[in-house]
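Lecture notes, unit on protein representations.

Consider one protein chain, 204 amino acids long.
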Amino acid sequence: MPVAFPPAVQQLPGYAGNPGSVPVKFPPENYPPAPAFQQHASMAPAPSPGYPVQRPPPLTPGGFVPQGSSPWTTGIFDCMEDPTNAVMTLLLPCFTFGQIAEIIDEGRSTCSTNGAMYGCVAFLIGMPCLISCGYRSRLRAKFDLVETPAPDWAVHCLFECCALCQEYRELRNRGFDPEIGWHANMARNRGVAMTPPVNQTMTG
């Protein structure tokens, strides 16, 4: 079988391997300049699927980056949206806090335990907001809520009852019922609480 060899390279004038040739300047003086490269819009790299582009949160006029991006479904002073809870929180804030804390803890603590802890702190040092403001931060982190109208510690120190009522209503608006506890909410949402069939017989 014959073997094909590549064609010989033609030596141009000015090539180092061609003695006696006239040197040529590179680039030639009369060669037109190369046009500037302009990237077309269709050549821009597209983001990879499954990896969304993360944009930084918007800055406020003062340069502060707010925590969270979702607004609350109820205002801090809208206590009359649930008058029963407003009166209960005014008389027994430890009870409302216990209900909220059980939902936020996802059943790892009970309403009575959280309420007793809240009452002890209120009785001993008179500042139950030291506990309740931490649960407000956890509630915001769970639902990506904006820290408004002030930092969590300031909201609970200044408007303790209003803050508890707002957090209670926020859980209600998002499908939780703090009155029945965490486990009853899970059973209701998953359809576990079902009545067994009556007079069920097995036929052969």
